[in-house]
Amino acid sequence: MITACSLTLLLLFFFFFFSLFIPFLLNLRFVVPGGFAWKKYHQNHKNHHLKGPKTTCGNFLGFLPQMGPLAHRNLATMATSLRANRLMAVSLGSVRMVISSHPETAREILCGPAFSNRPIKESTRLLMFDRAIGFAPYGNYWRRLRKIASSHVFSPRRISSLEGSRHAIANDMVERVCVEMNERGFVELRGILQKGSLDNMLESVFGINSDNEGGELLGLMVKEGYEWGKRRCNILGGRVSDLVTLFLKERRKDGDFKLRKDFLRVLLSLKEEDLFLDTDMVGVLCEMVFRGVDNIAILLEWIMARMVLHQDIQAKAQNEIDAYIGHQTRHIQDSDIANLPYLQAIVKEVLRLHPPGPLLSWARLAIHDVHVDKCFIPAGTTAMVNMWAIAHDASIWADPWSFRPERFVELGDFSIMGSDLRLAPFGSGRRACPGKALGLATVHLWLARILQRFKWLPSQTVDLGECLKLSLEMKKPLRCYAVGRQ
Ligand code: HEM
């Protein structure tokens, strides 16, 4: 009797003990570093270097939940905890990805020939951006587009030829600031910066501004476009296409396009054999407006948030302007910016702390098998560089969380244009941002103009909360006081 009872107890004990290990034993057979999308790859290639969070293959969602409005932060934390900063494998649903949070592997990805394509989402296609520079597959079509845009939109000559327009827009922004202060008692800069950036791009691309009926409509659509979503992109894509096709028709009807200087004129004046299809032109023209408006307005809002928060730094920038230009005696010109190193350092420091593209906005796609950091990466893998993580890495940047523009004055001639991967907010390599010089010229000039004209004070606590949409925006619009400088 006692023996039978002890035997049952023993069996129960073994059963209980064994059951504790069942999930573990099952997982051992199926878990793979990086998750579900990497399963096949791990079966076929013994690659022990590649790290990544392990999930069961049944976890079809992969790391989708982590990629929310703070994806850059979540991925940085994950990489650090797994010691996978150099390269981390993850699954985004069924998409196989690698993420670099280190300058060396970032260079391998961005500057090597393998990652020359970009993955295309359906929303991209719906907005016709798959035919535009940013998403066109690497090849002749992309090369042609980039060459034309480089010489007619982004060249130093073209940028300086539009300086007058940037000044006119700055005057308008200053006026709007005064009106808002009078009418509301405070300024919400976001709307003013968005309108300014929109006018800037409309002028360069279509030779119009947002007071023009078509321009105003396009502006509204751009605003909507930031709220990605399949259904909205579908509707929006159709409306944008109709409007820009109308611009094309009108310009052709006018027949005066050879006299104009905008990008639309350039595309329409190409030789017959080089002409693009209308549908391609629509994608190319719209992408310019969408990209140019978004990044510039967002970056300037972050800069102004920092100026309001750090009054001493704002005063130092204003003293630099006053000392060089003379207070209120004349407006700052593009050519003055080279003599304002502290102002430039402020822009670099904001790009380090609040890069508009923390994951370099658009990922890259491997067009053939490649090794990164000695790990085998199969063709078709999506790669991302977490520039936000690199720019906040304490082993690269001393005291990385503090806002200290002086660090760039001390560093001397630190280039942020893509040669130094410790801070490359415009990306690097053959698909680096072609609009970086235009973007910086605009941001420097407008920042200098509004700092010269006003002292900026907080009207409420400055909230540095962020939200990653198409770009990394301030979660809450900045509100402040603008007081004219005597
Ligand atoms: C502060 C301003 C800007 C920032 C921070 C920025 C950032 C970026 C980044 C991170 C990329 C991806 C680079 C890579 O994959 O290596 C990019 C690509 C691109 N940007 Fe910008 N950008 C800015 C301004 C502009 C402007 C003003 C334009 C056009 C008017 C523009 C047009 C483009 C285009 C067309 C691409 C795609 C290039 C390609 O795939 O060949 N960007 N930008």
Automatic annotation (TrEMBL):
One GO BP annotation of this record: system development
Pfam families per UniProt: p450
Domain of life according to the entry: Eukaryota
Membrane topology category: Single-pass membrane protein
Binding site for heme: 433
Record-level GO cellular component terms: membrane
GO molecular function, one term: monooxygenase activity
Keywords: Heme, Iron, Metal-binding, Monooxygenase, Oxidoreductase
UniProt keyword Magnesium, yes or no: no
Location in the cell: Membrane
Cofactor(s), by name: heme
UniProt KW Heme keyword: yes
InterPro entries found in the cross-reference section: Cyt_P450, Cyt_P450_CS, Cyt_P450_E_grp-I, Cyt_P450_sf, Cytochrome_P450_78A
Cross-referenced PANTHER family: CYTOCHROME P450 78A7-RELATED, CYTOCHROME P450 FAMILY PROTEIN, EXPRESSED
Family statement drawn from the similarity comment of this UniProt entry: Belongs to the cytochrome P450 family.
Protein name: Cytochrome P450
Species of origin: Erythranthe guttata (Yellow monkey flower)
